[in-house]
Write a structure and sequence with these properties.
- This protein is of the alpha/beta class.
- It has one domain (8-254): Spore Coat Polysaccharide Biosynthesis Protein SpsA, Chain A (Alpha-Beta Complex).
- The chain is 36% helix and 14% strand.
- The chain has nine helices and nine strands.
- It has helices at residues 34-43, 61-70, 82-92, 110-121, 144-153, 197-210, 219-228, 239-250, 260-265; strands at residues 8-13, 28-29, 32-33, 49-55, 73-77, 97-100, 127-130, 140-143, 175-178.
- A seven-stranded mixed β-sheet has the order 5-4-1-6-8-7-9, sandwiched between helices. Strands 2-3 form a two-stranded antiparallel ribbon.
- Helix 1 (34-43) runs parallel beside helix 2 (61-70).
Length: 266
């Protein structure tokens, strides 16, 4: 059963320390920084509070200033422990429900952000994720209560990659796995996250094609575009394999979390 008055917040984790595509979040997309492009899309989701969750490193001062110019909140916290950063931000802004939109995912679908918040507000799920969509097209959602449990239960302090796996523990959380609305099928090569120079080239091409008619285009419009112009996929072909191989090398081990009894006793 849903609870009245729950505060939903969109968290956008972001930092400027990237190796494969330096300072990628400030790279121009449609004449403005990529992160500003994403923030404008998140604003159309209807989520009450938008928080840029960056680090307290001096190099991320530019991101904090961008958040100020964009008129959204900013929270600065631990560089490597994103769970800690999220939990502190949730408490600071009194957020009950969090819709996470990665700063790299500038084409994340605003309609899926809104739907994620709605599912969380229904009160039957602790963690929400989407199936059968390209990497970077959808958010994930979790309750502040579940986030607090993860923070108390995790036994590592480096959680920047793969942190969502903590919430997939069925012994601790109720997980909702959602299927998107019907759309055309798409190639497994399609990826919508900003990680490599080739990703940036594809995103520039997609933005140039779609924003003249719809600035808030969804993943369905992207799929129709690349199906109509399959040569666009050649830009990123093979990158998903490299991306996931590296992800598995550095991702947090989801088993490094205590059970509910150990958490409650802490």
């Amino acid at each position: 059963m849903s609870e009245p008055g729950l505060c939903a917040a969109a968290f956008i984790p972001a930092r400027l320390t990237s190796v494969r595509l330096p300072r990628k979040l400030l790279a121009p997309i449609g004449g403005r920084p990529a992160l500003a492009f994403l923030i404008d899309r998140v604003k159309t989701s209807g989520i009450e509070t938008i928080v840029l969750c960056t680090t307290d490193d001096p190099e991320d001062d530019e991101l904090a200033e961008l958040a100020r110019k964009q008129g959204v909140e900013c929270y600065r916290g631990d560089r490597e422990d994103i769970i800690l950063r999220f939990d502190e931000a949730a408490k600071h802004f009194s957020a009950d429900l969090i819709v996470n939109v990665d700063g790299d995912d500038i084409f994340c679908d605003p309609s899926l952000m809104a739907r994620t918040a709605a599912v969380l507000k229904a009160g039957e799920s602790d963690f929400v994720r989407w199936n059968q969509l390209p990497l970077g097209a959808s958010p994930v959602g979790f309750t502040a209560a579940a986030l607090s449990i993860v923070r108390k239960g995790k036994t590592v302090s480096t959680t920047a990659t793969g942190w969502g796996r903590f919430f997939m523990n069925p012994g601790l959380f109720r997980v909702a796995e959602l299927d998107p609305p019907p759309m055309e099928s798409f190639s497994p090569d399609l990826r919508l996250t900003l990680d490599y120079p080739a990703d940036y080239a594809l995103m520039q091409a997609i933005e140039a094609e779609l924003t003249p008619t719809d600035r808030n285009f969804g993943v369905d419009a992207i799929v129709r575009l690349v199906n109509r112009k399959p040569e666009m996929l050649g830009i990123v072909r093979g990158l998903n394999e490299a991306y996931w191989a590296r992800f598995e090398e550095v991702a947090v081990d989801p088993t490094v979390i205590r059970g509910r009894q150990g958490i409650e006793e802490s």
